[in-house]
Design a protein that fits this description.
Structural class: mainly alpha
Number of helices: 11
Order of helices and strands: HHHHHHHHHHH
Largest sheet: none
Number of strands: 0
Number of domains: 1
Distance between the termini: 23 Å
Strand content: under 5%
Length: 236
């Protein structure tokens, strides 16, 4: 059963464990509004990386458990082609890992793209309009840290500041990641992941029942594990 999941662990559990570790790592830090802290910056970047991996791994596991979902993707004009040589290389377990092969070609880097894939397969949209805007802001901050060392660009300033402040901010001041901001982002990720795990497992069960699909006892257990997402505050 565990072969359906990346690393042998359901994506919801993996994400919660990773976010818990980040919480623990920054717990001793005393917050300060205008003090740059490399540890907080790295943890912010890491949280986004783990969150993106969650969506890819959870989606892949769902297809591993129920490959019939692939037909739904195809009906939505999503390319479901995979390299036959890759399939051969994974024998005799290729059938249980087809989701991994498929999602290697999918981009889960934005809330819009995540919604497209999840709505096609289940249908579930992890991000409503308000959540989409929140996560887009998180991604903008993450990209600023990764690609510009946190120093404000003109494009970032236009999104964040009033016109009169842009001249003084752009290419001079930097984004300050506070402990409060990081914890707020982690709480947001916990919430989205929990709702996504619960909703996708429910929809997958409905899809199986409505189409009269016969899942093995191991597949049925795996669907239940898909719903597991305890939240990073509750880990350990």
């Amino acid at each position: 059963m565990l072969e359906y999941f990346s690393g042998g662990v359901p994506a919801g559990i993996t994400l919660c464990s990773q976010l818990h570790d980040l919480r623990e790592l920054v717990a001793p830090i005393e917050d300060a509004k205008r003090v740059l802290n490399p540890l907080l910056e790295v943890c912010f970047i890491g949280a986004v990386a783990h969150f993106e991996a969650f969506f890819k791994d959870h989606f892949a596991a769902s297809i591993n458990i129920c490959p019939a979902l692939i037909q739904k993707l195809r009906e939505r004009q999503i390319n479901v082609s995979i390299d036959a040589a890759d399939v051969i290389s994974l024998e005799p377990n290729a059938f249980a890992k087809v989701g991994f092969l498929l999602t290697e070609n999918f981009d889960f880097g934005t809330p819009k793209k995540i919604n497209i894939f999840y709505s096609a397969a289940f249908p579930v949209t992890p991000f409503g309009n308000a959540d989409r805007l929140k996560y887009e802001q998180v991604l903008n901050e993450r990209n600023l840290l990764v690609h510009h060392g946190g120093v404000y660009t003109l494009q970032f300033c236009r999104q964040k500041f009033a016109k009169m402040d842009i001249t003084n901010q752009a290419f001079y001041n930097s984004l300050v990641v506070t402990k409060k901001r990081l914890v707020k982002v982690i709480d947001f990720m916990d919430d989205i992941a929990e709702k996504t795990c619960s909703a996708t497992a429910k929809k997958l069960k409905e899809f199986v029942n409505q189409n009269g699909l016969a899942l093995s006892s191991e597949q049925i257990k795996a669907v239940d594990y898909l719903a597991t997402c305890p939240g990073s505050k509750n880990m350990f």
